[in-house]
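Sequence only, no structure available. Ideas?
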Amino acid sequence: MQNNALQEQAECTKELHNLSSSNDPNIFKSYFSDLFNDIIGPIRESISQLNSEQLVIVFNLCGYTILTMIMTSIIILLIGDHLINKFELESKYPKMAKYIKFQLTLRKYYMRFYIIYFYITILILIFVNIFMLSFDYIYLYLYF
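Reply:
I predicted one. Tokens follow.
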């Protein structure tokens, strides 16, 4: 019985190998990684040509974009809580009360996560900016 299973597995493996190595024009191959590399390649090239001041500007823009997204998420959570309380959804829809309570507890955890994420992002931005500000002075001090 075990030998039969091993033979069937070997036959299926050979069949899959034959199918994957065929050059049939009707088979469409997906090159998702190539598409991703085509998008990322020019971005890498343009970033490699930037000097240190321009890199700091790009880093700050990315950081401020992340902070904006975090603040938007926090605001959406607060508005959702306000709407649930204003329209008294728990009392109007008692069958959905468990789901609403579950959502409210999830929102508390989301809020904590976003606040921690917000402060970590701010700290990273501050430390990188301080490092880049003092980089020229440290470089001059250490090597000259």
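The longest helix spans residues 97-143.
Hope that gets you unstuck.
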